[in-house]
Amino acid sequence: MPHIEEKVESLEAILGQFIVNTTRFENWTRENIKEMNKKWGELASKMGTLVEDIVAPNIGGIVKRYFGCADFDFFAIRVKKRNTKDRNKTREFDVIAVCDDKVIVNETKSTPRITYIDDFIAVLKEFHDYFPEYDGKKVIPVFASLYLQDDVVNYLSKNGIYAMAMKDDTMDLLNFEGIKE
Fold first, then answer.
1. CATH 3.40.1350.10 for the 2-178 domain, yes or no
2. What DSSP character marks residue 6?
3. Label partner for 57 (CA 20 to 30 A): which of 32, 94, 136, 146?
4. 74-78, 128-132, 165-169: lowest mean pLDDT where?
């Protein structure tokens, strides 16, 4: 029987080592998944700012061509602003451009969704709570992405929001004719 006892002890030792290694592997896997999720989050965030970085320089040409604004009194990207009526609320605006009697408010998304447009519509209703200094100026809302599907463009048009996306070799408004002023 000593031979069987040695084999059992050997198997117990191997099983013990297997359990330790499995636990280590599970911990290593968990840590790697956490790290990978963090990197995916960083990449998604960078994609959002990358699209914003492509859209922002195109705003000037679009506004000049379609709305007759040659020079801006104010132009800023990623403007963080506190709500003047509810100081607990702050909001980031992707682009705010002001010229003469117009304020261009841009929202840019790397992956456009109807819910994002609905959120933008809600923000537009509160725009002057963030920027009371532009009261009396015409607010021109522009929703931008690299590509906008027809149903998204139609939804934007229906809600009086300009749709800006790539067209040929530059960005353009896809629904200028479809917005009723």
1. yes
2. H
3. 136
4. 165-169
